[in-house]
Amino acid sequence: MSENVMSQPTILAVDDSPLIHELIRRALEPDYRVLVADNAVDALTIIYHEPVLIVLLDVLMPQVDGLDFCRTLRNLPQFQALPVVMVTSQKSPFDRVQGRLAGANEYLTKPFDAELLRQTVQRFVGNSDDRVNSGISHPRVNGELSQGQVSSIRD
Question: What is the mean pLDDT of residues 76-83?
């Protein structure tokens, strides 16, 4: 991978739809390095091994939904401050409240406006510049995902 790609802020999009992966990539690349996962277990593995600065998260996913995944992130000390933006088709005020209670920092609905997504991501990534410059941009602990953490997200 080129040094230029690795120096870009890394965004993780977690959604079970390849179409949404592509729409997010089109909206954010080439300004950001966009990684994708189609389920929560793969997403957690990526977060532990990549310098992810923000997670874009769907609510409706198989096995572990986005709300449970967000709660899991908020319960892991090393990821409590990682920004999470829900990007979902769930549009009701109740859904928005559930997202916020689960720990989401922001809530966008599908179909999303690409410019609004870019602005939202920039707002959070811009806030992370101090962490990047201080060398603490990635909150992983020892770079390893414990079996207990994978098991707890599957349960």
Answer: 96
